[in-house]
């Protein structure tokens, strides 16, 4: 995930309620606890229904934009990657049969366990089984997906156990390209050896994982934007069905370290290769306590290919023309051209050492956990080389070269544009190098006070250290063409980053079982999160200081064999958030603002007759910017130079979220539908442009053929919606008057997956 979809407070609140319910111990509530356990499993499965792609869980945030609080993926209790900006988590993780446990952690649990903001998907590897088990799965879809997943586990002898698995994914996406047959080629292999000792009260496991992923996640399309927020097809270009990626599959960069020109394959050279060793253990101590621990060493060589689409404009034939970079004798005959700012990183090595140890004890009324964790991250000379280019507006577009007339009226290449069709090398260069460390002490307590009251508490104290180097703008300019190594003067201007932060997180929850089927619940949380080395990748000093995230909720629940309901009012805020955004003339600037959300969420499940279940979620929320002032005095030539976006609705977040999930089971068959409604979303900071509301739809039928084989057929986007989402490039200072010019204007943006039919088979022997 480098890229993220909004689900809102919905799941976060439901899971907070689930967490509170799971503390109920009395016989009168046991049935409720079983229901909730089933809900957790179903919600974990629902997390994988992703309208953007199907290679990872959908992004779940807490009523705030995805960049502020998203979904973190954990494997065996540790984050899959230390920093997703250096490596995407799905390059080293995919859901499959290698995992024996899959759960969703709440906002509070995520804050205490890993010190992050958002919701977590937590997965635990199969460490071996008492009997031989064989699992196999195969999936395909109407676009030609080939996905295989196999795993084997069982005993060896003398209390030794094993588990091995292989996951292979070859996904062509939803459009055909001239440079690759598959936009996601991922292979993950795992092997686990476990030794149990002390009559089964202790065990130690060693897991090795190898992952190789070559993928391009950019999914954009040109379309006509209408001022009511809807979009229309642009010419003959089919949204989601035609490729808008430049057809060569190559990027020609100037390496900012060496100054050498390099030609990179966008799949192979910018992919990711990961080697991971996990050492895991469990021990039951004589005093009733348990000790769980894990230590991980991870080396990844990870790259990035990210085309950032800028202006889609009509050609002014009086001033310029365009020829093909591959054949400069051929003149482009189209009416429009597409500007692209290319970000390219080859595979760069990064090392991570992570570890945690949890000591816990459970008694009749108490369950406490105390843990210690340490994360160490080392990356050397990470960079994103950049350049600008122009491509034709057509399926599988070719790169173009801009030409202008010289003094004699002859056409010649525009200044700064080379024979590769590139210009502005490394003008938006990203660079950092160094080490990070996070050492944390944390603890939780679940206290059943009596048969009416449950209390939960959590705390995390984290010391974070950054020790690295970065290049401010004053020492970057000469490196644009010649590289840092060849510019010793610039090397001497490289500035040190030495930061120490003390981050804190606290949570508390209250559950009152007022009657046998009615009760009240409340939650409080406070989290602090600072920055990372990657915060210093730009040309301006971000002046990173910890960001504060307070939150609170209060609600009630009702349980009945026919109806189960949870309703909560939630408040969450994030102060001092820093982001790097584009403004006038493509100027990128680090901005600081606050954002807060007040929301009301109701979660209901109805079972009117045997086999039928209807689950519904409704969230009303109002995410607003606070203290959001942007000063563009240095780049604005005229007009307004200071913008105040305070009080506006947060960009790319819906105020109304609805999920409707009916299902019906009969004998070995199950028919299900999942629909999600997102109300209109602001497409820029000043709230002058919007994207219209949209539905995301899923459905399917599953059949348990026998005890060993399951079949399923699913449909994605069965309403064939083409709603746009995200933001509109170049519009972050657009006034209401200026917004009128966008009506009927061709733009480029992201989209949800087009109508897709999926097929799957699972076998367990």
Report, as a whole number of angstroms, the end-to-end distance.
33 Å
Unreliable residue runs: 1-42
Count of extended strands: 41
Summing up helix and strand content along with how strands pair, one would put the structural category as mainly beta
Main sheet makeup: 22 strands, antiparallel, barrel
The residue-averaged pLDDT reads 86
**Radius of gyration from CA coordinates:** 27 Å
Question: In one word, what is the shape?
Answer: globular
Which keywords apply here?
about 775 residues, 4-stranded mixed sheet, 6 helices, globular, disordered N terminus
Describe the structure.
The chain has a 22-stranded antiparallel beta barrel. It is globular, with a radius of gyration of 27 Å. A hairpin with a 3-residue loop joins strand 18 and strand 19. With 765 residues, it is mainly beta. The protein contains 6 helices and 41 strands. The N terminus is likely disordered.
Topology (elements, then pairings):
Layout (H helix, E strand, L loop, with lengths): L8 H13 L8 H17 L23 E6 L2 E2 L19 E7 L1 H8 L3 E8 L7 E9 L4 E10 L4 E12 L12 E14 L4 E14 L4 E6 L5 E3 L16 E5 L6 E5 L6 E13 L4 E26 L5 E5 L2 E5 L4 E27 L3 E27 L6 E7 L5 E3 L16 E19 L4 E18 L8 H4 L5 H5 L2 E18 L5 E12 L17 E13 L3 E20 L5 E19 L5 E10 L2 E3 L2 E3 L10 E3 L11 E11 L2 E10 L2 E2 L7 E2 L2 E11 L4 E8 L7 E2 L10 H4 L5 E7 L4 E9 L1
Parallel strand pairs: 1-4
Antiparallel strand pairs: 1-2, 3-4, 5-6, 5-41, 6-7, 7-8, 8-9, 9-14, 10-11, 10-40, 12-13, 14-15, 15-18, 16-17, 16-20, 18-19, 19-20, 19-22, 20-21, 22-23, 23-24, 24-25, 25-26, 26-27, 27-28, 28-29, 28-30, 29-33, 31-32, 33-34, 34-37, 35-36, 37-38, 38-41, 39-40
């Amino acid at each position: 995930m480098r890229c993220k979809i909004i689900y809102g407070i919905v799941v976060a609140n439901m899971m907070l309620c689930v967490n509170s319910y799971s503390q109920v111990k009395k016989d009168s509530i046991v049935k409720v606890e079983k229901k909730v356990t089933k809900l957790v499993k179903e919600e974990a499965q629902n997390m994988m229904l992703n309208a953007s792609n199907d290679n990872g869980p959908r992004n779940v945030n807490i009523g705030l934009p995805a960049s502020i609080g998203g979904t973190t993926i954990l494997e065996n209790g540790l984050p899959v990657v230390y920093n997703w900006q250096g490596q995407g988590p799905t390059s080293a993780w995919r859901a499959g049969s290698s995992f024996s446990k899959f759960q969703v952690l709440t906002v509070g649990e995520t804050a205490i366990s890993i010190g992050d903001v958002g919701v977590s998907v937590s997965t635990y590897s199969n460490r071996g089984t008492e009997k031989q088990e064989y699992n196999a799965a195969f999936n395909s879809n109407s676009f030609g997906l080939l996905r295989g997943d196999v795993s084997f586990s069982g005993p060896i002898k003398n209390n030794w156990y094993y588990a091995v698995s292989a996951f292979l994914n070859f996904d062509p996406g939803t459009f055909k390209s001239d440079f690759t047959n598959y936009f996601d080629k991922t292979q993950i292999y795992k092997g686990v050896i476990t030794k149990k000792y002390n009559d089964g009260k202790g065990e130690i496991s060693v897991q090795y994982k190898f992952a190789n992923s070559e993928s391009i996640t950019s999914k954009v399309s040109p379309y006509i934007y209408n001022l009511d927020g809807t979009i229309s097809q642009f010419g003959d270009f089919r949204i989601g069905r035609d490729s808008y990626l430049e057809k060569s599959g190559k990027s020609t960069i100037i390496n900012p370290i060496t100054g050498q020109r390099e030609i990179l394959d966008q799949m192979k050279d910018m992919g990711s290769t990961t080697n991971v060793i996990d050492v895991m253990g469990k021990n039951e101590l004589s005093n009733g306590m348990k000790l769980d621990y894990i230590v991980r060493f991870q080396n990844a060589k990870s790259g990035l290919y990210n085309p950032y689409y800028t202006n889609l404009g009509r050609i002014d034939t009086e001033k310029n023309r365009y020829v093909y970079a591959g054949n400069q004798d051929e003149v482009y005959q189209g009416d429009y051209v597409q500007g692209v700012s290319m970000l390219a990183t080859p595979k760069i090595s990064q090392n991570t050492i992570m570890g945690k140890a949890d000591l816990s004890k459970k008694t009749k009324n108490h369950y406490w956990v105390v843990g210690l964790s340490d994360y160490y991250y080392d990356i050397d000379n990470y960079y994103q080389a950049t350049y600008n280019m122009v491509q034709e507006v057509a399926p599988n577009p070719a790169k173009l070269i801009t030409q202008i007339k010289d003094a004699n009226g002859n056409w010649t290449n525009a200044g700064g544009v080379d024979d590769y069709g590139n210009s502005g090398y490394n003008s938006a260069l990203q660079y950092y190098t160094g080490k990070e460390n996070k050492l944390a002490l944390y603890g939780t307590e679940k206290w059943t006070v009596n048969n009416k009251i449950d209390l939960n508490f959590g705390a995390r104290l984290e010391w974070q250290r950054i020790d690295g180097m970065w290049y401010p703008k004053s020492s970057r300019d000469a490196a644009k063409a010649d590289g840092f190594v060849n510019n010793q003067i610039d090397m001497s201007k490289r500035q040190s980053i030495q930061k120490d932060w003390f981050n804190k997180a606290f949570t508390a929850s209250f559950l009152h079982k007022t009657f046998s089927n009615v009760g009240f619940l409340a939650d409080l949380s406070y989290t602090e999160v600072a920055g990372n080395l990657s915060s210093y990748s730009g040309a301006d000093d971000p002046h990173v200081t910890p960001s504060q995230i307070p939150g609170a909720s209060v609600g009630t629940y009702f349980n009945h064999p026919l109806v189960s309901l949870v309703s909560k009012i939630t408040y969450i805020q994030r102060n001092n958030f820093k982001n790097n955004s584009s403004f006038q003339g493509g100027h990128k600037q680090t901005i600081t603002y606050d954002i807060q959300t007040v929301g009301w969420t109701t979660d209901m499940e109805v079972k009117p007759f045997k086999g039928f279940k209807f689950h519904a979620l409704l969230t009303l929320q109002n995410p607003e910017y606070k203290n959001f002032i942007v000063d563009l005095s240095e780049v604005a030539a005229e007009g307004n130079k200071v913008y105040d976006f305070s009080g506006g609705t947060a960009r790319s977040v819906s105020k109304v979220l609805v999920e409707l999930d009916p299902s019906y089971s009969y004998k070995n068959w199950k028919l299900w539908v999942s629909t999600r409604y997102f109300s209109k979303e602001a497409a820029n900071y000043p709230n002058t442009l919007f994207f219209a509301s949209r539905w995301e739809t899923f459905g399917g039928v599953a059949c348990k053929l026998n005890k060993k084989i399951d079949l399923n057929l699913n449909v994605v986007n069965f309403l064939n919606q083409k709603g746009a989402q995200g933001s509109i490039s170049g519009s972050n200072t657009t006034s209401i008057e200026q917004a009128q010019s966008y009506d009927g204007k061709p733009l480029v943006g992201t989209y949800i997956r087009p109508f897709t039919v999926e097929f799957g088979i699972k076998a367990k022997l």
